[in-house]
Amino acid sequence: MARGGSRIVKAPDVRREEIVTAARELFAERGVRATTFNDVAERVGVTRGLVYHYAGDMPSLVDQVLETCITDFVADLRAWDAAREVGDIDGAVVKCIALFRRNVPTRRTSADGQPVARPLPRLDDAGLYVRFLDRAVEALTDTLEATTIPAYAQRHAIEIQHVRETFQMLIYGLVALVRSHPETSDGVLADLVRQTLRLAPNDPGVSPRRPPLEGE
User: Fold this and answer.
1) Is 215 in contact with 183 (CB distance < 8 Å)?
2) What is the DSSP string of 127-155?
3) Nearest to 167 by CA among 185, 146, 140
4) What letter does residue 189 receive in the DSSP assignment?
5) What is the pTM of this model?
6) Which pLDDT score, from 0 to 100, does residue 84 have?
């Protein structure tokens, strides 16, 4: 509210984004079950009725938050694909591991004490988590099929069968491992990616330009 009780009018898309962003932060801090529309309204600085107007109900708001998380993950994946150096497969794998670190919520912290992952919701309900994960894996696999996989196939033979299903299995496995064992080193994760996908070595003459693995 503005000073003196006057209402600040914002465009619907702007207000909706504020509400979804606030809900995402609260879900990360408190979990989905412990967050109410009153909490969201207080965080945004609007009435509860306005939150209902834009969100409809809590399940709908949760879905909107999950969709923003998936959209961020996919955008990160597209940015990674666009930045890959042709022939530097090792570097691409290591940077992809860093991408997963950014988008999978864990209790792990960086050297400065800040969480590694983005603010992702604490999904207290197992069914809700499975739904989120299934949607995320589908979206990520669709993106890989449209970008990285055909680009790789233009230069190298794909040595695996059931390509889509293999990538889905790998993504499910990486998410589960990073969540349950965040101490797993980037080197181990990179090896798992290489072994599962049977990736080709770097092109001759290409030196991997990658950030150092943990422990190096």
Assistant:
1) no
2) HHHHHHHHHHHHHHHHHHHHTHHHHHHTT
3) 140
4) H
5) 0.82
6) 92
Which residue reads 């209902």 in tokens? 52
Q: Rounded to an integer, what distance in angstroms lies between the CA atom of residue 73 and that of residue 113?
A: 23
Residues 6+ apart with CB under 8 A from 172: 133, 137
- DSSP 3-state assignment of 209? coil
Predicted pLDDT of residue 111: 46
* pLDDT tens for each residue of 19-32: 999 999 999 899 99
Give me the residues of the chain with pLDDT under 70, please. 1-9, 105-119, 205-216
Q: Which amino acid is at 84?
A: R
- At 6 the pLDDT is 52
Residue 177 dihedral angles phi and psi, to the nearest 5°: -70, -45
Residue 35: partners with Cβ closer than 8 Å, 6 or more residues away: 23, 26, 27
DSSP code for 109? B
pLDDT score, position 205: 63
Q: Tokens in use for 40?
A: 């969201």
214 and 101 Cβ atoms separated by less than 8 Å: no
For the packed helices 163-180 and 186-197, what is the interaxial angle rounded to 10 degrees?
Answer: 160
Nearest to 88 by CA among 211, 214, 213, 209: 209
